[in-house]
Amino acid sequence: MTQRYVVVDLETTGNSPKKGDRIIQFAGVVIENDQIVDEYSTFIHPGQEISLFIEELTGISNETVKDAPDFEDVAENIARLIEGACFVAHNVLFDLSFLQEELVRCGLEPFYGSTLDTVELAKILKPTSDGYKLHQLAKEENLDHSRPHQADSDAYATALLLLELKKKLMNLPVMTLKQLYRLSFSLQSEISELIDACIASKLTKAEVHSPELITFRGLAFKKVDEETDYKDREAEFPQDDEKKMAMLQNAFPAFEARNGQLEMMNMIHHSFESSQDAIIEAGTGIGKSLGYLLPAVYFARKHQKPVVVSTYTLQLQDQLLQNEVPKLKKILPYSFQAVLLKGRSNYLSLAKFERALREKEDNYETALTKMQILVWLTETETGDKDELNLTSGGQLFWNRLQSDGLTYVGLKQPWLELDFFERAKRTAGKADIIITNHSFLMTDLLTEDALIPKKGYLILDEAHHLEQAASKQLGRRLNYISVKTVLNRLGTTDQKQLLYKLEKLLSNNGLTEGKSTHDLDRKLNDFAYEFEQLFYYISNQAQKLSHSVSPKRLSFKIDDHRWSKAILVAERLVDLLGSIIMELEKRLSLLLNNEATLGKNALFYLNDIEVLLGHLQDTRDSLHEFFINPQEENIYWLDYTNTAPQHGVTLTVQPIAGSKWLWDSYFGRQKSVIMTSATLVVKDSFQYFKAQLGLDSEPIQTARFPSPFRYKELVKVVVPNDIPDINCLSVEEFSETAANHIIAAAQAAKGRMMVLFTSHEMLRATYFSIKDSGVLDEYTLFAQGISGGSRMRLLRNFQNFEKAVLFGTTSLWEGVDIPGEDLSCLIIVRLPFSPPDEPVTAAKCQLLEKQGRNAFSAYSLPEALLRFRQGFGRLIRTPEDRGVLVVLDRRIITAKYGLEFQKSIPAVDWHQGSINEMVDMIEEWI
Fold first, then answer.
1. What is the predicted pLDDT for the residue at 174?
2. How far apart are CA 698 and CA 185, in angstroms?
3. Closest among 904, 918, 909 to 872, alpha carbons compared
4. 707 or 796: which carries more pLDDT confidence?
5. Are strands 883-887 and 457-460 parallel, antiparallel or unpaired?
6. Cα(48)–Cα(65) distance, rounded to whole angstroms?
7. What φ, ψ does residue 288 adopt, rounded to 5°?
8. C-alpha closest to that of 126 among 318, 469, 461, 387
9. 3-class secondary structure for 366-433?
10. Rounded mean pLDDT of 658-681?
11. What is the pLDDT of residues 344-377, one digit of tens each?
């Protein structure tokens, strides 16, 4: 008999029928034989007022349901509609449980049939989707969804989505479907029945194998044709600017000449050819990416040597590959190859995944993740984790599947040809341009078996982050959650985790030698308890030092008497860990001495244990350095969030000046290094940037190519003169005053505004002051660290709402590209000086003072000037943009150094005025 599906959606007055919430709209769409055959929809009178929030969300008002039937009047119709069907919904648990409560309340039988959740199904069949909300999926699949949050529109869109997802399921090979079917019994809805029906349907006729897929050892993959190695040595670099312009305009007729970009191309070409280093500041609108990619490709093709381009953010990395490289392919008269290379742990190990699939004890998260990966393997060309949208549990499971250098030969041998990391290495070996990020670049440079040439050609974009990235790479972190995760994964012998499996392997191979596991279990339990106590103690001390709800960063010095108890506990932990590691190493070596007799599943578990052993050794080394033997050249601090006591503690160490060591040891040995960014210059000099990298005395050529934008015609700057000096008020008092100006500016700009802060504490205080006032209730407010979601999601949401205000801290001061009217007003609440007690700032200032230098003028001021320039750069992204910058910190006018901030940005008109004059200017200008 053909399965009948009824796709249901409800709109309700709230989330809980037990608390009296009621349905205000029901919709059901019936599917038979993959066709929509019937629809039923009705508004329902809830017998209570519909809140303003629900009305705004759904568009359903008290007036809409005034003459609608009560649920009791339609309950039997609904019960008949869903009887004998498979109940489908987008988040089925909510719709079904709510409907069940209402049916039972009316004296009817609850629904006992099968359920199907399209959220769950979409996660499996669309594993790379940005999100799984109905409107996101409908947009991706081009489905009709004209009225989101109205039940009839939502139910119809969900029905269309189900049909699309079923098509995707039917297009998968039977081999993959069978794997999915076995795993589907761990899911929350009866997706197993749908998969079973698809398998049965496909088995009725001979399977047609897709030419785009290949199969190996029971898995199906997307067929990838590795690009050929171009050996032709193409045209010489066009030294003449007219020739360059002819090429650019031939590909893009509307291309406008930007002298700075052409000069940049010439300079980089000369630097590569003469094996020299260069520092280049390229202002917004210059076309920096094309400015370095074009000469890089010419050089790489001519000399058959790859050029490595490294960025700080993944966003720019993706932009280069998806936007700039295709442009360049259109411009150049010959082919070239550009590839993305990431850290090894970003790539899936097929050898490990094959073994993981054979494990039977799947919980919900691991089963879902395995199903996602099975489908993803039929789509991915890279095996790069960043393509996947994994749950938090899926991320943890990935740690067991990621590629590493520890995988035993017996496991990986069959997979060498298809292995994603090996393929990435092969592709990188043939590439002209290798795009990567600073983190991977530095990790790679520090390894013996480096993928990136030790004496090659490098372009470091977003170079102002180089010092920060170097220090971070040379540092280490220790946090409660990651150590507890390792301990839970290892377990004790009675917890049936990896240690239990290790002991079982020893026993099965007759290698126990009469050893008892009780001693190791006791040590692991002691370590877990003592570690818990250590972090509980640290969080208590941090709480005494921190009086804020916002995340806090505190200096950590063991000579401070308050940490004496922590030192004693840490000493015991280091001893315990040393003993645990020794015991595990003994057991591992016993088994590995008999590796030839072990099966692949056994090797998979041993691989897991060896990875965990590495984490335990890192933990021991970190505890030893933090509490027993700190180094004078390093900075130590703890990050603390009091909303999650010991869980919210992270200890960090990094060198005070790591980048100089990295330059002398690695970067300085490259043939040519180009460092570029939109913000490198301070007070018309590159001296601060060079000093940060320890390059003060290096003979490096420098150039500055200013932005071609006519800022005077595009930007007005306002500094309110009726706001008190920021140093005369507490954080709460200043936040209250700033809130009034932000409200006024938001109303004048009709949203479309970003507000930049230098601390979470002031952001929270200002945000809640505005929120509580209720004045901006018709605006959508997004706040970093409060609204939830990643930085990218915050930016997407900000652009999707018309009347939106975005409150941001450090990471939103740069790398935010919002062209056009979406961002028309920018408020800088406080000049971006780092707090003097911030550990990195304090350590750097202390070092400068020891050297007899003025820490304010040598570090604090230049750093703040650069960040101010970065903040200003968010406002104008294209020559057509217009905007107003409001600076709420009067020191930009009154302090001696205020003029330095004014001079740090392009020449614009500066105005002072009252809050009313500020409003008038914003309204007139934008």
1. 95
2. 64
3. 904
4. 707
5. unpaired
6. 10
7. -60, -45
8. 387
9. HHHHHHHHHHHCCCCCCCEHHHCCCCHHHHHHHHHHECCCCCCHHHHHHHCCCCHHHHHHHHHHHCCE
10. 88
11. 889 999 999 999 998 887 789 999 999 999 999 9
